[in-house]
Amino acid sequence: VIAAVRFEGGRLEVLDQTRLPHEEVWLTLGSAAEAAEAIRRLAVRGAPLIGVVAGCALAVEVALDPGRLEAAALELRGARPTAVNLAWAVDRVAAAARAGGAAAARAEAEAINAEQEAANLAIGSYGADLLAGARRVLTHCNTGALACGGEGGTALAVIAALAARGPLEVLACETRPLLQGARLTVWELARAGIPCALCVDGAAAGLIARGEVDAVVVGADRIAANGDVVNKVGTYAHALAAHAAGIPFVVAAPESTLDPATPTGADVTIEERAADEVRHVGPTLTTLPDVPVRNPAFDVTPADLVTAIVTEHGARPPRGLTPNGV
Amino acid sequence: VIAAVRFEGGRLEVLDQTRLPHEEVWLTLGSAAEAAEAIRRLAVRGAPLIGVVAGCALAVEVALDPGRLEAAALELRGARPTAVNLAWAVDRVAAAARAGGAAAARAEAEAINAEQEAANLAIGSYGADLLAGARRVLTHCNTGALACGGEGGTALAVIAALAARGPLEVLACETRPLLQGARLTVWELARAGIPCALCVDGAAAGLIARGEVDAVVVGADRIAANGDVVNKVGTYAHALAAHAAGIPFVVAAPESTLDPATPTGADVTIEERAADEVRHVGPTLTTLPDVPVRNPAFDVTPADLVTAIVTEHGARPPRGLTPNGV
Asked: Which of B214, B221, B228, B259 is the catalytic position?
């Protein structure tokens, strides 16, 4: 069983994802500030998991000092700008704390985690129904238990459900700059016993064009009201290639990723991260140390390239999305 | 002045491109076997440069032992399967050697190098005419003097000519797995004083979609008779994004890259390289050590995504190409 977060007895622990796949190190997050820092440096990453951990961290903070509620909520909300689940989870726990204090905050954080686990299972099942027959699936970044809390995931939950129903091969894109595919998805798939091959991000489009992929399945960090999908940088090129090849491009995400307040992908602030993420791979400097860098963390896949969005309520086309299945 | 090959007095020296940008180390290639090894391990890379170096190496071998001509030609031709210039240059020098011995072989190799230099200048000028007004250009891999011999290049010759005519900013894709963009293009552009920013390959499509790029210019390893372009893996996704955004996608290559004997891109053997290129960046293992890998070195961009092909004879649409400008 893979899990990336533990929240038992009010104690919050997370797996440090920057150390994987070589080491499994657990961190105790004793405050909102420590959680915000872990989120910023990507020790905790993946839109659904960020929400779960931020919610739990707010409950931890409120148990320490109820007077810190509003400041801690603000700090956690600002840890990363793009993921909508983060604000959603923090707001839920903050509202519970205002109404019922530390005990209510902790119960709400535990409820979010439990809901997330149930959502992951449903997403996997609906996605596998949609892609029945797909035997070679490409994915990007990491969308498994490490990204989502619980034991499930979003796109990786679909993949796990497909693998449980028949033979499956996964093509995992390494996902530069931070290599979540190479480090995390490969590690999760190996643990789950699902056959997998790794490729560089630039190889995906050509392999799709050569007929080596039956479907592309990815997660999402935010889905705008018009169905545009904001996801890890590199996703849009895979969507273009899938469209050109006539294979499904499916987005798996919890309902909390839908953002009806944002009309289109163009309205989303795309986080630009540090230049050294691109200049280095691990400790290795790969270029001139002072070269300017463009490092957007996400890109926007237009709704018309998306075959379906799969949430815990089922699969539906991206146009005219409404949140919470209504 | 950047040059990646010296061939003076029958002595063949090349810049070891695996050591850039941190060290400038020159290698003396004393035989066809040494040259083939340097080409295989990418100390010498870039389709035009491979041709120049292989031609010179065959002349070196024939000067040592004329009886080795056919075996050496075979070994050099087989050093990499995809680039058509390699076979073309080796065949030219072999024919000269058969007709006139070692002196004729050396003269032919020197002629190929000189022709390449002249072609690079012409490619740069024609490409800059075509893209007059483009101020933000994206490129992939390395197509400069390091790739082409002489002081010019193909796509980078176009970029240098544009920069000589007005302000220009280059977006250089790092080009996983071997990072020729991060290591070599950034280094060449810095030396030339041309402003440049580096991005991961997966960021290109999103930046193009956001209107941050006026044109894409790349080189080619082989161009099929129908205009399909075989180039460094990752190129096809950039072409899809350029097409979706309505910006030019231009391929700059010498006439020797045109391969009328190959009907379409689907008929080209795509070299699959070693798994450890993907599993590692430099000395750093980025994933599980035994994960299976797909590592195609090239991909195919269909002719209908190519705005123009620019050679030393000018710019023309990709359909119905005939070699040598006739």
From this structure: B221
**Which residue matches tokens 């604000």?**
A87
β-pairing, A284-285 vs B249-252, is unpaired
Q: For residues B215 and B252, give the distance between their C-alpha atoms in angstroms, rounded to a whole number.
A: 13
ipTM: 0.90
Could you say which of A201, A241, A295 has the minimum Cβ distance to residue B176? A201
Which residues have a Cβ under 8 Å from the Cβ of A213 and sit 6 or more positions away? A136, A137, A138, A171, A204, A207, A242, A245, A247
CA-based nearest distance B195→chain A, Å? 9
Q: Angle, nearest 10°, between helix axes B47-64 and B69-77? A: 160
- Amino acid occupying residue B321: L
Quote the minimal CA–CA distance from A73 to chain B in Å. 31
Q: B250 to chain A, minimum CA–CA distance in Å?
A: 18
Residue B221 designated active-site: yes
Please name the member of B198, B205, B233 whose beta carbon is closest to the beta carbon of A200: B233
Beta carbons of A182 and B287 less than 8 Å apart: yes
The residue ranges of DSSP E strands in B29-178, in sequence order, are: 136-139, 169-173
Q: Which of B197, B244, B286 sits opposite A281 (nearest CB)?
A: B286
Residue with tokens 């798996």: A252
Provide the pLDDT for residue B224.
96
pLDDT in tens, A65-122: 999 999 999 999 999 877 788 999 999 999 999 999 999 999 999 999 999 889 999 9
Q: What totals of helices (H) and strands (E) does chain B contain, helices first? A: 11, 16
Question: How much of chain A is helix, strand and coil, in % rounded to 5?
Answer: 45, 20, 35
pLDDT of residue A147: 85
pLDDT classification of B151: cutoffs 50, 70, 90: low
The span from the CA of A294 to the CA of A316, in Å, is 34
Q: Give the pLDDT band (50/70/90) at residue B320.
A: low
Interface test with B, best of A23, A200, A233, A264 (most B CBs within 10 A): A200
In degrees, to the nearest 5, what angle opens at C-alpha A78 toward C-alphas A72 and A81? 155
